[in-house]
Design goal:
four-stranded antiparallel beta sheet; alpha+beta; about 15% strand; 9 helices; Muramoyl-pentapeptide Carboxypeptidase, domain 2
């Protein structure tokens, strides 16, 4: 997703990238916010507190470091300290502020609307892309109804979040390591799932996703191959090398939660869970599959990867 945003900025302009980020987070908000409040046991909290706690708890379950401070029933802070996970590494240097701010407009600024509280807004006191020590701000229930353009306000140089409040740790009996790992995976895959649906609406096609996916496959194959104990950069073009990559692909697809079968150098998914509900699914599947084309080239530049639906053959 980070690569797609950078690709849109560099090839289509910041306005298109901003539209995509806004649409992505607005869709996630509409699908996840109210059900998430109930699931996290926050529905009974004052609205400002519930919103800040929602970000704190949901991101913590996804493995993202977040901080929280309840200043009053009508004012509650949330802070995302550096490094900002969504703009990984040096990528943050290529993200325009208006593109990062689109996340706040897409999600944080709509909380009051979803809660039926037109007085609730979000005040951003700093963003990491502007050189601030984290993305931070507070939900505030005002004394009057807010106009749409007032639901997110930027106020740098004044307030800053007080000391973060310590929160009780997750109960290890309720949240064993295996459950946490599944939750981390679901959190990450939800971003990809939303991207597959929103990107063509904002950018007109999946073309940028396909281009970036191949690059990501090329760049990240080695690190993941090492983690999985698989070879990389073989440059031999043999049947042995083809089967080794097929084993890598099988492991990664299983890691996505897909049902997979492998026969030698052929890997087949039973359906495509990530694309459930996509109509038509083929353009998104073709673009997403470029991840594996790039990874195959990084594994062994003398191999090719052929796809037929949800089946891949390494040759």
């Amino acid at each position: 997703m980070t690569g797609v945003v950078l690709g849109l900025v560099s090839r289509r302009g910041a306005a298109v990238a901003r539209e995509y980020v806004f649409a992505h987070f607005r869709r996630q908000h509409l699908e996840r916010f109210l059900p998430g409040l109930a699931k996290l046991g926050l529905a009974g909290e004052p609205h400002a507190v519930a919103c800040a706690l929602y970000h704190f708890r949901s991101n913590a379950l996804g493995g993202v470091r977040t901080e929280f401070c309840r200043e009053s029933d009508r004012k509650a802070w949330v802070r995302y300290p550096p490094p900002r996970w969504i703009w990984q590494g040096t990528a943050i240097a290529g993200v325009p502020p208006e593109v990062s701010a689109a996340m706040l407009h897409g999600w944080h600024g709509h909380n009051g609307v979803s809660l039926g509280n037109p007085r609730l807004g979000f005040v951003c006191t700093g963003m990491t892309v502007d050189g601030m020590p984290g993305l931070e701000g507070y939900y505030l229930e005002h004394d009057r109804e807010l106009a749409p353009q007032e639901r997110v306000r930027f106020a740098y140089g004044g307030e800053t979040m007080p000391e973060a409040q310590s929160m009780p740790a997750l109960d290890p009996k309720e949240w064993p390591e295996e459950r946490l790992e599944r939750t981390h995976r679901a959190y990450a895959l939800e971003y990809v799932r939303t991207m597959l649906r929103v990107l063509p609406e904002a950018a007109g096609s999946h073309d940028e996703l396909a281009r970036v996916a191949r690059l990501i496959g090329l760049q990240y194959h080695e690190a993941l191959a090492i983690e999985l104990g698989c070879p990389t950069n073989l440059s031999e073009g043999t049947a042995r090398s083809a089967e080794l990559f097929a084993r890598w692909l099988e492991a990664v697809l299983r890691g996505h939660g897909e049902e997979v079968e492998r026969d030698g150098a052929k890997v087949r998914m039973q359906g495509w869970k990530l694309g459930t509900g996509l109509e038509p699914a083929e353009p998104a599947l073709a673009a997403w599959s470029e991840l594996w084309v790039g990874a195959c080239a990084a594994h062994d530049r003398f191999l090719t990867l052929e796809r037929d639906g949800t089946e891949w053959t390494v040759r």
